[in-house]
Known about the structure:
mainly alpha
Amino acid sequence: MPRSQRNDNFIDKSFTVMADLIVKLLPIDAKAKEAYVYYRDGLSAQNDGDYAEALQNYEEALNLEDNTTDRAEILKNMAIIFMSTGEEEKSLDYYSQSLDANPNSPSCLKNMGLIYEKWGRMAEEEGDQDSADKWFDLAAQHWSKAVRLYPGGYLDIENWLKSSGRSTVDVYF
């Protein structure tokens, strides 16, 4: 039984019913509608913390989805799951795939920077300043792009870029 048919939460169930009606009325092909249902079920599973089910639904959605922007969103959600479970290298791969499909995604860039910054802090704690600087520089590259795409949206990152001396611009907006 699809997740959308077994949701006990009234608000979620109401949203699902309305979304199903809208999707049925939209003039899109059956394959795109089916991809949307898998995507929606993946989101629901992800929100419930059922990452295995979410990934299954996202895989099905990817197999059906032709729209590059929608594919980018699916890939980004998969990356978020892998980031949440500590599979950071796999997460970076999915973020990269998402950026290939939609290069203007500040959240992908921000999250990739978070991973690189974490790795930089870990290298710094281990006394490997050369590796730390490499990771911090990668974080700065990704975060600089993110704040240019979403000015004012990541103030903590803008502050980090300035305080670390890795900012290439004084003002992002």
